[in-house]
Amino acid sequence: MESIFNKIDNSKILDYEDSFDIANQCAKLLFSDSSADQSEVRRVVIHVLDNWGKVCKDTYPLWADIIESLGFYPYIEKNKENLSLSSFADHIRGKYYQSEFLGDTYLHKEQKRLSDYILSGKNVIASAPTSFGKSLLIEEVVASNKYKNIVIIQPTLALLDETRLKMLKYNGRYKMILRTSQPPSKDKGNIFLLTAERVMEYEELPHIDFLIIDEFYKLSLRRVDDRANTLNNAFLKIVNKYNCKFYFLGPNIDAISNGFAEKYNAVFYKSDFSLVDCNVINLYSKINWTTSDQQNDKQKIKLLCNLLDSLKDEQTLIYCSTPARARRFAKAYLDHLIESSDLTQNSLPLIEWIDKNISSKWSLSKGLQQKIAIHDGSLQRHIATSIIRYFNEGKLRCIFCTSTIIEGVNTSAKNVVLFDGKKGGKDIDFFDYSNIKGRSGRLMVHYIGKIFNFCVPPEKETIVIDIPFHEQDPNIITDEILVNIPSTDVKNDTFERYKELHSIMPELLEIIKRNGVSIYGQMNIYYALERDINTSMYYNIAWSQAPNWDKLCYVLGLAEKNLFDFESRHGVVSVKQLVRYINQYRKNKSIMDIVDEIYQSKLKRVKQVTDERKIKYFDEAIEQAFHIYRHWFQFTVPKALSVVDSLQRFVCKRHRKHAGSYSYFVQQLENDFIRENLSILVELGVPSSTIRFLESKIPETLDEDGVIQYIKSQQSVLARSLIEYEREKLKQCF
Length: 734
Fold this sequence. Notes:
This protein is of the alpha/beta class. The protein has five domains: 2-96; 109-270, Rossmann fold (3-Layer(aba) Sandwich); 279-453, P-loop containing nucleotide triphosphate hydrolases (Rossmann fold, 3-Layer(aba) Sandwich); 504-659, no CATH class; 676-731. It contains 34 helices and 17 strands. The chain has a seven-stranded parallel β-sheet with strand order 3-4-2-5-6-1-8, sandwiched between helices. A hairpin with a 2-residue loop joins strand 14 (422-423) and strand 15. Helix 2 runs parallel beside helix 4. The two termini are 50 Å apart. 41% of the residues are buried. The mean pLDDT is 94.
């Protein structure tokens, strides 16, 4: 078949004879029982569509029949001027594949089959390529109006934000719940757009009718994901309590734990059907590999710069193993463009916001001007969301990214560069590689994507996703999952462990289960509180409102090594340093103070300060400070305080002492020290600096829903003093 692909892709024109011959070969393979033959026909047709301008018009009807036989109805609709269905029967079939609930949207053959399973009320576990269109079926479930209360669990806030924007059109029928503080509507349906952690924290869920878990492979413990415990428990919390229908979706999975589908009367639907093909270009042989990582990187950077120059305006993701490497190589390509005088003047509203609120010296600002961006877990949420939006709108050319972008953020990338063969410090496996590769090409945007391998890709392997709460392998299942399994479902191999866990005092056990973090760590904290409750330490335990230095050091000292540690040493190395940063931030409410402290500290460590070092250290300081903000201030510290708070309340009650209440400070920290009724705006992607500016202009008496309505009605007045980027972000609230 390679000769056919070469002819299609490299010929200037496909005359009648060539086009007819290729169509004839495809027609023969269509009747084959071989899935490999079917896959090859799909690939040929995708390449033909990508080169449609070369195809002899007299053969259009032939190709229309083949494309219709393959069930490529979205492409028939997209190209309806040249791919008209000729017979009445063809039109009837075409209408069958039109979504019943999404207007003029057409489903491809296997998408329709999967849709029928879901809408008929079956539980579905779907494994299909990134370009299959699995996420579209989430919208179809919502549009069908079959279910009143729907929970959608997605692993990243960026993905949840993308889903929220798609669901805005259903605001008339559903209330969007993004935070645990938002009560559900009684008058209409509710869509809970939450991470697994927030599902566990949401105390009063209404009756849930439908559960969606996106990227369900994150249930696996064998794949070592530190959030797997919470996702397993979120499933148990919802399905065991409400017996609701569910839809799992994920890519490139061959099998799941034996018996799970049968137990939950579910269909495991595996498909390799794709409307996008991917050309694989191996470039690793062009690198003269040495034992020096520095020398290898120099060669790779040179090769990358030449490649990106040749791709010109084709949108490209460059996968790097760590945030530091993504920033470093983005800067290297920017320097290359400056040296070669190949510069543009890209004007984006985000650039103005960065220059005003962070610094024009930040290399991201300079990169955006040249259509270059970065994307990793340390970026402020609104910046990361804007970068993806600009990229999808064609306003950015390349993004240097980490695994954050391959785990469920949809982009319009035509090309992906596998620059590094690691994820963090570990080698990527075939599953990781398949997900990275799957980000090339986009359904209804690019027919063909490309992956450029700068490293030897992992060998193909069968991917089986374990579902720990069902499988209950005693060597793998954690206490945190085991303790939440109903006793009737616990297997013999783990029953003794289960009994031991349930020997903990019932009230304490319920608190521990609700917290959803290390049972061992929580018990250590409980014993420490019991030890200190009748000593002078009581005053460091039972505090409310805003803690002072000693109180915060004490509580986070309990949490260290039990709920978190500083092993990664990324930005924070001790409890005292962490508390100092927290105090600094709550006083000044500016992350730039922490950036400056880190930057000055780096400068003091070197004897000779060059301009190059200044730029490097400033970028590193921003990345570290943003990581401190996202990882510590927004997640780790609030969670640790909430856990210790629940345990100290229990211990104080046992000892008949007045308990503390950390909830106010936790809320303040999570909400970026923004007024409570305005905190929903952070969730909707409005920068904190903008919200603080608007604080005096929005009534304090309004609830969260009222705030959004007020902004909607007063938008023109509120926007007068805002810059363009801030006005854009405000518009996206509704």
